Amino acid sequence: MSLVGKKAPSFVAPAVVNGDEIVENFSLEQYIGEKEVVFFFYPKDFTFVCPTEILAFQSKLAEFEKRNVAVVGISCDSEETHLAWLSTPKNQGGIEGVTYPLVADLAKTIANNYGVLAGDWEYNDEGELTFEGIPVAFRGTFLIDKKGVVRHETINDLPLGRNIDEMIRLVDALHHVEAHGEVCPANWSEGEEAMKATKEGVAEYLSAN
């Protein structure tokens, strides 16, 4: 079930912030009323596609920050594993230099609440609790507004890396909608013409494009 239009599930969990500090009670609630949040799940530390995405978010972090948007990553690893990976140089497969928070979801409850866990718990014929699937998170990405409401979500399968520039475009679209009361057509980018959400507005836009 999609979370778009609903309050983002709340949580309090350990995280590594600033690349080197473990905090025990991290929450997205700190951003409500202050910033939008791009909250993204990735499968696992010390893997292959994941560092490319995490480092790509870091390389674009200034673009998010100038839009007053926080970037927060999360996986089902522990905070100690996050810290070890953050302390490993890039040329050794690490993500040293990443400064935005990485949340630890070792119990997998956050991934489950956001609908991105790549499996589920079931009881077998003997009444034993088992896990069917893979106990990691899919590549879920959520854009959460200042009220704590999810405005966009995408969920990629494990081998499919995401496009960071597309998240910047969606942030720009959300800001345009909120600032101007217009809607953003297909492939809209910042600086391009949007349109009024009326029949006349659509007709005018289509005739001009």
Distance between the termini: 35 Å
Number of DSSP helical runs: 6
* Shape label: globular
Largest sheet: 7 strands, mixed
What is the CATH superfamily label of the largest domain? Glutaredoxin
Quickly name the level 1 CATH class of the largest domain. Answer: Alpha Beta
Count all strands and give the number.
9
Within the CATH hierarchy, at the fold level, what is the topology of the largest domain? Glutaredoxin
Strand proportion, as a percent range, falls in: 25-35%
Q: Which class of secondary structure composition applies to the elements? A: alpha+beta
- Quaternary state of the chains: single chain
Domain count: 2
Give the strand order, joined by hyphens, for the main sheet.
Answer: 2-1-5-4-3-8-9
* Contiguous uncertain segments of 5+ residues: none
Second-tier CATH architecture of the largest domain: 3-Layer(aba) Sandwich
Which SSEs are present, and which pair or pack?
Layout: E1 13-17, E2 21-26, E3 36-41, H1 49-59, H2 61-66, E4 69-75, H3 79-86, E5 102-104, H4 109-113, E6 117-123, E7 129-137, E8 139-144, E9 150-156, H5 164-180, H6 199-208
Parallel strand pairs: 3-4, 4-5
Antiparallel strand pairs: 1-2, 1-5, 3-8, 6-7, 8-9
